[in-house]
Write a structure and sequence with these properties.
Helix content: 10-25%
Radius of gyration: 22 Å
Shape: elongated
Number of helices: 7
Largest sheet: 6 strands, antiparallel
Strand content: 35-45%
Structural class: alpha+beta
């Protein structure tokens, strides 16, 4: 699933990327690479024992923890992307980010391969998760495939293929359809205030953000809670 924003919808990219994501990943056991995926340089190989406690170890990762960012990533340290350090053979302390694995389940497995589904928060690297799982199993583990099956409330079943996109055979979703936010219809008086970026009383008891529309269904703006008021976050004209 890849969300493509066009026009004024580019204003909500940061909201979409902040949503939880779901993945299905394939794993090869007994092989460790520098990129944590099968296309990397092999650094370690080890025989895989029978009857590894896969289900138990996967279940143990249903938690919040500090995940080390892989060196082959675009995260910057001291103004330079990590993969630049890696390509130059330079040492660098890898940053750690707090991530939450909300759900993880084994889909299938044999002696040295398995597939799992994971529901994770923003910033989680599935490659790093697989590497961490390998450490718990005491055997190197490398990602062989990855499919993002869900982002926010949009799933792969609703997605279009590249071929369909190029043929123009797709549906454009509205901003309020892809955002998990309350939608409020306002009268002309409030519409005027919203168009002019005026702060509003939070009489609707909004907890975070809210979408405002006029009576004709036109998107006016997204407001965010600020103390006891609502202030404009993004306006749409």
């Amino acid at each position: 699933v890849l969300m493509i924003c066009v026009g004024e919808a580019t204003k909500i990219v940061e909201l979409l990327t902040a949503y939880d994501k779901e993945y299905i990943a394939g794993v090869k056991l007994g092989v460790g690479t520098d990129t944590y995926d099968i296309e990397g340089k092999i650094l370690e190989q080890k025989e895989v024992l029978e009857n590894l406690p896969l289900k138990e170890v996967l279940s143990s990762f249903k938690k919040t923890y500090l995940q080390e960012v892989p060196i082959y990533s675009a995260i910057k340290v001291n103004g330079k992307k990590l993969y630049e350090y890696a390509r130059r053979g330079e040492k660098v302390e890898l940053p750690k980010k707090e991530v939450t694995i909300k759900n993880i389940e084994l889909l299938d497995s044999n002696k040295d391969t398995f597939t799992f589904r994971a529901h994770v928060t923003k910033g989680c690297y599935i490659r790093s998760l697989i590497n961490d799982i390998g450490k718990e199993l005491n055997v190197p583990a490398t990602m062989t495939s990855l499919i993002r099956t869900k982002q926010g409330n949009t799933s792969i079943e609703e997605a279009y293929t590249l071929e369909e996109f190029l043929l123009g055979s797709y549906k454009m979703y509205t901003i309020d359809e892809v955002l998990n936010l309350p939608v409020i219809e306002v009268d002309e008086k409030l519409e005027y205030k919203i168009k002019n970026g005026v702060k509003l009383d939070n009489s609707w008891q909004i907890e975070d953000k809210v979408i405002f529309k006029n009576k004709e269904g036109k998107l006016l703006g997204i407001y965010v809670v600020e103390e006891n008021t609502l202030r404009v976050w993004k306006n749409f004209q």
